Amino acid sequence: MGMSFGHLVILMVVILVVFGAGKLPGAMSDLAKGFKAFKDGMKEGEPSDKNH
Asked: Is residue 24 classed exposed, middle or buried when 0-12, 13-18 and 19+ CB atoms within 10 A define those classes?
C-alpha cells in the first residue's frame, strides 16, 4: 500500500496552491532544517559507548 504517481501529482499541486511557487523553496529549507535538528537531537540522546 503505497502512493501511486497520481497521488504524488495531486499532492504536489495542493502544495503549490497552498504555499505558492515563491514560498516553496523557503518552506522546503525550513523543513530540511527541522529534520536535521531532529536527527541531531536523536543522536545526542544515544549512549556514546555501545559495547555495554
From this structure: middle
Q: Position 39: which residue type?
A: K
Nearest-5° Cα angle at 38, 36 to 33: 35
Lookup: cell for 28 = 522546503
Contact (CB, 8 A) for 16 and 8: no
Helices (H), 1-52: 5-44
List pLDDT tens digits, range 1-34.
577 989 989 998 888 888 787 887 888 899 899 9
**Structural contact between residues 7 and 15, judged by C-beta atoms closer than 8 angstroms:** no
